[in-house]
Amino acid sequence: MEIDLLRNYPKTKRNTQARSEEKTDAVRAIARQFGQQFFDGDRQYGYGGFKYFSRFWQPVVPDIQQQYGLNNTSSVLDVGCAKGFFLYDLKQLIPGINAKGIDISEYAIAHAKEEIKDDVACGCATELPYADNTFDFVMSVNTVHNLERDQCGRALAEIMRVSKGNAFITVDAFRNAEEEERMFEWNLTAKTIMHVDQWKAFFDEVGYTGDYFWFIP
Fold first, then answer.
1. String of b and e for 182-200 (b: at least 16 CB within 10 Å)?
2. What CA–CA distance (Å, rounded) separates 202 from 141?
3. Torsion of CA 109, 211, 166, 168, to 10 degrees
4. What backbone torsions phi and psi does residue 186 show, to the nearest 5 degrees?
5. Which of 133, 114, 129 shows the shortest CA–CA distance to 79?
6. Handedness of CA 148, 174, 142, 126 (dihedral sign)
7. Is a pLDDT exceeding 70 seen at residue 146?
8. Which of 105, 117, 180, 189 is 20 to 30 Å from the Cα of 145, by its Cα?
9. Could you tell me the pLDDT band of residue 11, with boundaries at 50, 70 and 90?
10. How many CA atoms are closer than 13 Å to the CA of 146, on its beta-carbon side?
11. Hey, where are the domains in the chain?
């Protein structure tokens, strides 16, 4: 189902044209290493300082909890968890919940929020190190599109494999020519960007049956 579970995540006004002018192939190559430069380096390489603020995920977590009926006996996986800020806020709302995170970035995992460091690990979305049907809910926000198309499909299949059916992802997408232009001006790390209808067909192709929504700057 298409559902915007990030509707309460704070939105910022983006100057996509200005961003496009500074996004060279060299800059994208550095950003795609997902290291210190991407998270805490100069703004041109990524976040320009990736720090915890409660105003980001705290308004979002209750919607996710309600949508998937999460409680303190539930198990959750965040694929592309970065420094674990979502996991921290989820655990604050639902004490005792079994929440894990995985991310390709050794830097992000090493600098994860102290309270959840034991719950995060370094790994790739295409080979999730968990048994089938391990998690009640699996989430992946703005992550799988950073892979080439075939690997993106593999990651989506892995998300479904380790979940018990409930999953939610967001991916870079566009619905018209104007949004497509803005998307490619803004893009820094994504390798798979498609029209929303192409994404839906791709989900069917690779067997992704979870929920989804789009990142469109």
1. bbbbbbbbbebbbebeebe
2. 17
3. 10
4. -80, -35
5. 129
6. negative
7. yes
8. 117
9. confident
10. 21
11. 54-215
Sequence-distant (6+) residues with CB within 8 A of 2 are 211, 212, 213
SS3 81: coil
Residues 164-195: tens digit of each pLDDT: 999 999 999 999 999 999 999 999 999 999 99
Tracing tokens 């949004």 back to the chain, one arrives at 179
Q: What is the pTM of this model?
A: 0.95
Tokens coding 65: 């909890």
- CATH assignment of 54-215, given 3.90.480.10, 3.30.70.330, 3.40.50.150, 3.90.1150.10? 3.40.50.150
